[in-house]
Specification:
The structure holds 2 protein chains of 2 kinds. Chain A is an alpha+beta fold. Chain A has helices spanning about 130, 135-145, 165-175, 185-194; strands at about 1-5, 10, 20, 25-30, 30-35, 40-45, 55-65, 70-75, 80, 95-100, 105-115, 120, 150, 155-160. Chain A has 3 domains: about 1-45, RNA polymerase II/Efflux pump adaptor protein, barrel-sandwich hybrid domain (OB fold (Dihydrolipoamide Acetyltransferase, E2P), Beta Barrel); about 55-115, Beta Barrel (OB fold (Dihydrolipoamide Acetyltransferase, E2P)); about 120-195, K Homology domain, type 1 (Ribosomal Protein S8, Chain: A, domain 1), CATH 3.30.1370. In chain A, the strands form 4 sheets. Chain A has a 5-stranded mixed barrel. In chain A, helix 2 (about 135-145) runs parallel beside helix 4 (about 185-195) and helix 3 packs antiparallel against helix 4 (about 185-195). Chain A is flat. Chain B is α+β, with helices and mostly antiparallel strands. Chain B has a single domain (about 15-225), classed as Ribosomal Protein S5, domain 2, CATH 3.30.230.70. In chain B, the strands form 3 sheets. In chain B, strands 3-4-5-7-6 form a 5-stranded mixed beta sheet. In chain B, strands 8, 9, 10, 11 and 12 form a 5-stranded antiparallel beta sheet that branches. In chain B, strands 1-2 form a two-stranded antiparallel ribbon. The chains are: A alpha+beta, B alpha+beta.
Amino acid sequence: MKEIVVPGEKVDNKVESYVFKDGDSLYSMIFGVLDKRDEYGRIVPLNGKYFSQIDDYVVGVITEVKFGGYVVDVNSPYDAFLASRRKYDRGDVIFAKVANVNEVRSVSLADDQKLFEGELMEVSPVKVARVIGKKNSMLMLIKEKTKTDIYVGRNGRIWLRGGDIAKARKTILKIEREAHTDGLTDRITEFLNR
Amino acid sequence: MKLIKDGKRIDGREFDELRPIKIEAGVLKRADGSCYVEWGKNKVIAAVYGPRECLPKHTQDSYKAKLTYRYNMAPFSVDDRKRPGPDRRSVEISKVSREAFERVLFLEYFPRTAINVFVEVLQADAGTRCAALTAASVALADAGIPMRDLIVACAAGKVEDEMVLDLCQEEDNYGQGDLPVAISPRTGQIHLMQLDGIFSEEEFKKALDFAVKGCLQVHELQKKALKEKYENIGEVYGNE
């Protein structure tokens, strides 16, 4: 059961994320969707920036070449640093893992690989989970039907190459638009089969 | 000029009646959050950017996000062209509005970043700072920025010795007092309050009471504007 909540709206005492306590009650901090599927509810934001979490895989763009490594734009208010022996130029697109986020929100990346050619697109970071699907189900469905090589970064950046890229893009944008609705997997399957 | 006739105001409203208000969230594609408000003859648009990198770097705060709020009136928003750029009044409104939001946004969650709020008044008819604040609140929520509440603002005033809610331009220009107030609807806490005029203690209490009641009504419209944005999308799928 899903419900849209706004900041300051009172929610059940069993809700877990994006809430704050005032007195004995819990209130939503954000404009989001309250999902009351099981015993505990969760609030998922409808919009927001990407903030790096350790072990996230992200699609980044090299913005500066420094002595020990590179400064990478990960579509976040906080830039990331990649200490790597590999040679990159400004503008290169890489796929890497967030290795660490320290107390001042500085991010370090690791396990980097360059993504050659291809195209980039961006979706709202809060909708990425839906694009990937449970156990990658949604992503595998898109890749199978369009034969496109796709790398999805948790930061909302998606790299695509080959296959029916146009269809893959349209599908991803459709998922982003309808991320908060039910029955999406069926509609996407039908859309891809057209 | 007679502002009150036969128990009604010049625009026909009751003493405690708000002007018609329309609020729409998410109207600007490039902003992180936005909101358009029509309040009587006022038209304001708010845009929010952030949290984003705080530049220039020396203005960064290591412990929290830096909030900027810019209230500006477009040259065409008033009868006599307003010269572009901030004037003393705009700077003051920007300051007190920013301070209101600083009390409700969870700025500590985003150290070293900036959250920039811009509100442009496209058409003015008294009560623009309230409409601006109301719009900015919705825009901040639309941007996904966490806050303790959606703050809302409304003004009350004194016109020919009567306390009235939501002054229009004539009432503001020829009346005896204007009291804009911004509150947190959940707690009733006051985050902005200014008074232009002379009120007795009784009159002040009555005006404040009117303003708070007005705020609560407007808050319902704020919530509706946000919730509506997503309720419509659900029905449109399959229309490529």
